[in-house]
Amino acid sequence: MRLAVVILNYNTPGDTIACLKTLKQAKIPKGLYVETTLVDNASTDDSVDLIKSKFPEVRLIENITNQGFAGGNNVGIKAALEENPTHILLLNPDTLIDQNFFVSILNSAITNPKVGIVTPLIYFAKGYEFHQKYAKNELGRVVWSAGGRIDWANVYGTNAHVDEVDQGQFEKIEDTDFATGACMLIRRQVIDQIGLLNQNYFLYLEDLEFSQRAKRAGWRIVFDPSIKLWHKVSQSSGIGSSLNDYFITRNRLLFGLRYAPLRTKLALLREAIRFLIFGRPAQKTAVADFFTFKLGRGSFLGRQT
């Protein structure tokens, strides 16, 4: 197996360096070749210099402009494909892996030729849990994602089993609605068949859209709990922010009007009209941009940066 790891950095050198350090310390089993490509998404801090000084061996690509999660990762995927990998691993820079991470990947459900994408068991990193209700010995075992579910009636994707403590209940490999972009193991043939992430989304729901295209092309998407990692869950663009308002509103329309049932599509259109009249400013802009085909970065982000 030839595995290309793609990491996207944007103004988070501390997290990215910590992630790269765990990658460097992990065991590489016989039969697995790993190469890491890091894309800097036009950071405005000293990310590039810091990462170069700490990890000169990592291939670093510097984007001139911020191309969002989808576009930034696509730059890394295209570069990685030049080395002819058998699999691509999209990995958030605010994640940490353990020493057996690559051993687990080599022996995971991805060995099944019908499986196109694998999503792992992702815990909150210690101190990054949503709630402060856990005993000290439970920290590091609180689940952030154990697969994903799509609520087709409301066009939302949610992580499965979020906030549960792992007590050994996650043992089965199961089909899942989508794989989270925080850590997505993709068979090369999937990308060859369906293409890259959809850059119209820029930020949010691009993992749902990619997963849907893969499923409709006949690939299975599975949750494999043998692969584990920890996520420093960010609250920087969380629920309630204008950034979240804009991209979730616009991308729900983009996703739902393509993939959802007819009844849901009609409900989305009614909701869009309400947002245009009564919505928050970012929601109004999002709906207007959708119907005037201002996708990708959209007009909202241009005013914020």
From TrEMBL:
Superkingdom is Bacteria
Record's Gene3D superfamilies?
Spore Coat Polysaccharide Biosynthesis Protein SpsA, Chain A
> Phosphoprotein among the record's keywords?
no
UniProt keywords, alphabetically:
Glycosyltransferase, Transferase
Q: Which GO terms describe its molecular function?
A: glycosyltransferase activity
SUPFAM superfamilies cross-referenced by the UniProt entry: Nucleotide-diphospho-sugar transferases
UniProt family annotation: Belongs to the glycosyltransferase 2 family.
Q: What is this protein called?
A: Glycosyl transferase family 2
Q: From which source organism is this entry? A: Candidatus Chazhemtobacterium aquaticus
Q: What is the lineage of its organism?
A: Bacteria, Candidatus Chazhemtobacteraceae, Candidatus Chazhemtobacterium
